[in-house]
């Protein structure tokens, strides 16, 4: 493994046995950790290169016309490969072309070691967002000038491999040995590489200090119970030590503010280019006064206000002066991390006193080390390769993480299910009796949270705390809720209930009675402890072995029935790849009565199995203390029984006993072969759940967002949050405009001659949208974000645009959400780096996407973002409003759409130097009576409407102007 050849082939397609050929070879030799040689050449494939390959690689028929044949160049490649391991990124692709070429030219097939840097990257870099070569190279600052050209790809892969070897060689020996047990069935020869590294480490042991051995902690590792953890800092709060002559934190707020923000203040000294903003300072004063007076405050702060500092600075000063902890809640974990790692650090450097900050997430976000240790004891044989990879990723991650937070991990779908097995939870926690207690990620996070001056959480945890009657978060009276327009959705999600058929099957897998499972291991440990077979144990095990197969059979039958019923009725709403159907339990009559009968039989079988398992677990003798292995397994199985009971209750809730306070629906996956059903239920009215326990009980809550008003009124969000129930003196509102000059920076175009969207003329409308998008993209030279309300419409437009651009002289890169990737961050990153690119997105792209500068110059809104009328939650709430004598469209659908429309338009102008055009292809915005609600809620863009052939001429002219001149 000291000698390797990193290879990359560019080819005419993916199938060498069907005639696809190599058109370029790149190879890089590595000897003893150093690049020693390289080789690259174009190859004449003897056939035309398909246009999409030329578009991808830049290699044309003309370029290969005079190139040597494969037969001519192959001997040089084989000399380099002789005696070396074969390394490639996605090695199975390149290996199949190598083997086919060898056989076709009369050589023996390659039988040396094969290493795949995709597999190795997933194993050793478990926190990466993507394992594509281009993105790995970018993240690791590896030079990679010509992606999809073999010479550049091979060199980038070689540098990536050397980086991976550095990671591997720096891992502790115990982790290398643990990984070896997991990777034996991997496609590439990672097990051989690990053996090689292990032997190197073992050979170095005599050279170590006499007082330390291979399994003892070094400066970086905490090695305990055969697991290596990264050593953690004593306190995981962010802190900053002030100079000895720091000002007092008790100065009046205006005086302190001037000391921070003034010309001689600390903010201009520490933040390069800081400029005072009138709206930001107005926000600071309003936040401080609301906290001081004990009132709630709703603030709409336009883009560019500096909202985060606008609430953090006064909030921290007030909390410090009043010796209270400040809670800050965000909707997204990304903003939670940004506040913690950026804004908090800025304020710790600029405020005239010390303060500490920490983050906290729901308990299920943290790894339980005891459960993970147990999971590693399960037999490797019989587990899938993906499951082994997940366990390997987590072993590596333990040497990197200080938080144990699942958000750091990038796991395949199997990993999401495995996480349910190893996450921290109340039901299976040994607390101080656990040998891992002093190292527990969750309890350490709780300790940090309790001691911090500022605690940053997310809306999900805030809602969970409400449901748990304030037993999760430290007691608080003052909180700031950012991205507050999401508060109702967060309450709907976290005060509702969810379940899926895949969860049920995974639960049954965890209750396996096969050898190696927790139940069998408990029986074995029990008999080993007492030194003899136990008749009670064998009787209970026999009973469980008879009951378990019935569980699987009934679960499969139940799943098939549910899927058949749901898939025959489901329609697309808003979620990618999901189709939805609302239901009521009373719907299951006649032939559908079978669903209820099958559910009852499933519950009966589950109850019988749980009773037998409980008898086994409860039967452990308590006269003397069992060994830890038994106590640990017993705790896990009590946790499993607890979860089992919750699932039985959910089955009753979803399919046998309907609660009138909820709306129920099922979702099926429409784009995969997996026949799983997701069941959900949401409270019809969450305002009651927010008004009393949150707003009525707390002293001061600051709710802020860039979009809280509709036509400059807060009445919609106040009604949805239940704030109308409070005395008027308890609630204040403030609307702060953006500092941007929208009249000069932005232009909003509304074609008046577009067909109206609707089923009767859907084809005509689609044609107009496709041509309109092409016109915008051409005029903007790419640099366009297109927002959709439907994934099906996105796919149709994407395909049509791709075909038309393929047949034209214009070349653009289309990036479709759910087509090219489901990862929003990855797509946005590609859009910002690829010239002449177009980004097509749905729901998640309407907000939280920040693309300043010329990378985004035009924004297309295809349709006004009304919630689909067939969305179950909308339907249920609309019916409720109707019974209250209200118009559901005017009091819910329209305000929701306006707020999302404002968010969408807000993607364009992100900086005072930005310039851009918004195009709305939905004529209802000017033709309907309610359309003015959308336009009146926007910043003061210059708005133009008229025939599209005239309007589209304005795009290029506007984007090319140094400043907007009067027409």
UniProtKB/TrEMBL annotation:
A motif (DEAH box) lies at residues 482-485. It holds the Pfam family DEAD. SMART domains: DEXDc2, EXOIII, HELICc2. Its EC number is 3.1.-.-. Keywords: 4Fe-4S, ATP-binding, DNA damage, DNA repair, DNA-binding, Exonuclease, Helicase, Hydrolase, Iron, Iron-sulfur, Isomerase, Metal-binding, Nuclease, Nucleotide-binding. It comes from the Bacteria. SUPFAM superfamilies: P-loop containing nucleoside triphosphate hydrolases (SSF52540), Ribonuclease H-like (SSF53098). Residues 266-555 form the Helicase ATP-binding domain. GO terms for molecular function: helicase activity. PROSITE patterns: HELICASE_ATP_BIND_2. ATP binds at residues 301-308. 3'-5' exonuclease. PANTHER family: DNA REPAIR DEAD HELICASE RAD3/XP-D SUBFAMILY MEMBER, REGULATOR OF TELOMERE ELONGATION HELICASE 1. NCBIfam families: dinG_rel (TIGR01407), dnaq (TIGR00573), PRK08074.1 (NF005981). Belongs to the helicase family. DinG subfamily. Type 2 sub-subfamily. This is 3'-5' exonuclease DinG. It comes from Brevibacillus choshinensis.
